[in-house]
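Researcher: We're teaching a course module on how sequence relates to structure. For the next exercise, students receive a sequence and then see the predicted structure as tokens, so they can try to spot secondary structure elements on their own. Here is the exercise chain.
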Amino acid sequence: MRRREAVRLLAVVLSVIALVLTSSALNWVTEASAASPKRAVIVAGPVHSRTAEYKAYAQAIARAAEAQGMEVVRIFHPYAPKSRVKAHAQGADLLVYVGHGNGWPSPYGPFQEDTKNGLGLDVQDAENRSPSNVAYKGANWLRDNIELAPNAVVILSHLSYASGNASSGMAIPSRSVAVERVDNFANGFLSIGARAVWALGWQPGADIVDALFEEDATMDAIFQTRYRDHVNPLNGWIGDDPGHYDSVRIPGARIHIDPDPTQGYLRAVTGDLGFTTTKWRDATATPADTTAPVISGVGATQAASTIVPADTAMPVFTPNGDGLSDTIKISMKLSENAFVDVRIKRDGHVVRHWTSWSLKGSSAVTWNGRNNNGNNVKEGNYRVVLTPTDRAGNQGEPGATKVKVMNSGKNLVASPQLFFASDGDALAKSTALKATLTRKATVSWTVRGSNGAVVRRGISKAQRGPGLVRFRWDGTDDGGVYVPQGRYTARFTVTRPAGTYAHEVAVRMVPFRLWTKKWTLARGDTVTLKFTSAEPLKGKPVVTANQPGISKYEVPRWKITKVSDTKFKVVLKTKDKGRAGEMKVRIEGTDTGGGTQARVFTLKLR
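Model: And here is the predicted structure for the students to work with:
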């Protein structure tokens, strides 16, 4: 009996010890895995006379976050410079900004993201801080300086532009402009880790904070919730004319807008609209990507319209607003979707900086030859540096290429482009070739045939100052003999210390020029031919068609419409007989000086 009791007592003791050990172990595990509080960073910038009011909005959101157990950092004016935001916003689960909004499209161009689509903060120098002194830090600054926690949520409260409307008192924009503003403003925050960006003009941000903790719903479902009575932007969902749109700036992201019929665009959410509050509360979320993007194949493509000497070492473009190679495309290949930081440098100094979202594979960015102030850059050589960063914040090694800017000659004109000098009369006997120089240069005007050979040297390597450079071509070659009828190109060549380039304009030394939508047609088809005469005609011309296998025939005069003395329209019904091949259409007319001219055009018959 004593032995049995002793065994029983030993079992009890061992059970107690085991229970103590198990409880200790469980307590240790519980402590080790206990999630630390979610972090909220609430930023309230200077807003001129409304600064105190906006700080109160931010304070209400901060109190709501604290009531939900969040660890809250307040960064309020006058203690809201970029350095404090950068120091505290890293790894934030909730980032809230209340203040001025500087977005795009807006009246305050040009578009760039050094100051637009970000935060309006205090200046760094404490002595110069005031409610009226706003330092805008745009989407580029966000991408360069902040990385939020995985699955972070951003709330933009009471901003202009972020939800679609502009500043108070300005006109309500079109829907397309509102969506573009929402997309642009959200893109920087989505690129630094946010899964959803809320833009609320009037609705209290505390509504969203409470919903993140108290509801099990998607971002889109919360967006479509009304939190108080009455339908207005202050209380939540309006539902009068909402709309979903694909983001242009962040492929894969979606935009939901909910405009008020009288107040405009004061509610929007952008990002992963199916992202849930349950997922946001999950402390085990980790970054999905730790591999940096790789950029390769960086190179510039010169426009075919710009002609340079064979020994020119880099692509040339001519940004001067005349429509000829005003931009240059920089091509690349990316190993994954990425934000590409573009920096245009001259002598090591950055003259232009922006960021572009680019997709995996072959992609490109375009530079318009302007600097950060929107002005054309000087002529010379520039280095283009492209640095990719993916949405997880991984930055890859940069790629680079060089381009040359030449823009001293512009606005090439041949007036008229169609002339007919070889008939010897006083009608359409020449064309004026004109171009404008913006600075002193060596210039040439030459006329070339279809084979590229020079037929006439009008101006040859002459020194000219700024202004119009003009040469009148009378249709003759360098020997004074009329060139054959046909198409020619007039080339204007400019040489400056930075290099040499040329542009061309087409001229036609022919009596008639024909245009039609259908150069190949079946027998029996009807085709409309529009043609222009180089010289004004008396009455209507004679139009004759010659199809293979049948006799030629004349188009009835009533099917020829005289639009003006030089413009005509012909409705030609081909015969359904004969055979396939080339059909010749001959146009003959008598000009107002009594001369006769003709030209034959070729169409194909099936």
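Model: If you want an answer key for the exercise: Residues 6-34 have pLDDT under 50 and may be disordered. DSSP finds eight helices and 35 strands in the chain.
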